[in-house]
Amino acid sequence: EGEKMKKIGTYSVRGQVTEAETEAGLPQKILLYDGSIKTGYKIVSFVVWGASSNTSSNPDVMGKLGTTDTLNTSSVNFFNASDQRELAWAGSAGSTDTMFNSPPASIIDPDNLIVEDIFIYARSAAAEPCNYLITMEKYDITDWQGALAMVRNSAQNV
């Protein structure tokens, strides 16, 4: 039997990212790596929503989390579940007036485990800033679990 991961806490991070940053190949970096492959994070919640509420026609926003700053930034095939470096995807209706009536939706790979940093990418129309909130569980893991996570998150087959 493999050793169990020991949960040692939770960690959340929130902020804003723009489509312009994403398109420029500058997704927002979220620092997690503490220099040890014995610390791992599991994404348990990822939501995005638009920043404005001035009209009911604000654009939809969508985001994704990945383990590299070199993921596809184009609106074509923006979400790509066949890329092992993509771990979570989220979207919400444009207007914050309607967002709370139909909350943001997300899909998170249940097997995700991150040792190094993650990156958030966003898409929206009309340069609408994209808010995000990511909640993760922090784990004490073994060397082999950390090494396996690093290999998997670098898009190599495991």
Task: Walk me through what this model shows.
- There is one protein chain.
- By secondary structure, the protein is mostly beta strands.
- Helices cover 13% and strands 39% of the residues.
- The chain has three helices and eight strands; from the N terminus they run βαββββαβββα.
- It has helices spanning 19-23, 96-99, 143-153, and strands at residues 6-17, 28-30, 39-50, 61-66, 86-92, 105-108, 118-124, 130-140.
- The strands form two sheets. It has a five-stranded antiparallel sheet. Strands 1-8-3 form a three-stranded antiparallel sheet.
- It is globular and about 50 Å long.
- The two termini are 19 Å apart.
- The model has no long low-confidence stretch (mean pLDDT 86).
Features:
158 residues, 3-stranded antiparallel β-sheet, 5-stranded antiparallel β-sheet
What value does the Rg take, in angstroms? 16 Å
Query: Stretches where pLDDT falls below 50 for ≥5 residues?
Result: none
General form:
globular
DSSP helix fraction: 10-25%
Strand content: 35-45%
Strand order of the largest sheet: 2-7-4-5-6
Backbone structural class? mainly beta
Could you tell me the number of beta strands?
8
Specify the biggest β-sheet. Answer: 5 strands, antiparallel
* N-to-C series of helices and strands: EHEEEEHEEEH
- Quaternary organisation of the protein chains: single chain
With helices defined by DSSP (H or I, 4 residues minimum), what is the helix count?
3
- The separation of the N and C termini measures 19 Å
Mean pLDDT over the full residue set: 86
